[in-house]
């Protein structure tokens, strides 16, 4: 049973990553009808939404794209910054979606920012406490580790609506501003949906691990 469980938690993330890379690679070779570079797509959407203060920067790495709310900067990986593809447009628009969320003080984005320090503590210390508790047979340590882990899991669950909402905003902006044609919506949505799989997979694995540890703790309590 445990072998099946561990196989699942290993396979799901790998499958999600393969799906993302395959979809991104495919649509990175399909030029958008607007032929705008990713950086131009980002700038166009930002300006249309009055976000003139948000900068766009090129960053190293593959799919390292992100929005930094501290510096109000959209950072795009080189391929997406310079690329004219549907994938580049989709990713750029998605990151701008986060900038729009920031401007509008989107509730789930604010909640995620609030949870960051708690989630970091949970990620760093939960397993230390759980392992110590299991080795020494101290259920209270295991329980404390579970509480810390629950904070990290909550962060991942809150991330889901943030990412899905950013993708929804990206689609709306791309269509409204003519970045893509109607017949390109399907391909653009595929790129955004594939990217979301990584967050869904991470959240699913985190929840499964939390449930497993709660069952372990329950078992320890029964043995006392």
From TrEMBL:
Q: Name the source organism.
A: Niallia endozanthoxylica
Instruction: Name the residues that span the membrane.
Output: 127-155, 191-215
**GO molecular function (one):** peptidase activity
Protein's UniProt name: Zn-dependent protease
Keyword set, alphabetical order: Hydrolase, Membrane, Protease, Transmembrane, Transmembrane helix
Top-level taxon of the source organism: Bacteria
Pfam families recorded for this chain? Zn_peptidase_2
Q: Name one GO biological process term.
A: proteolysis
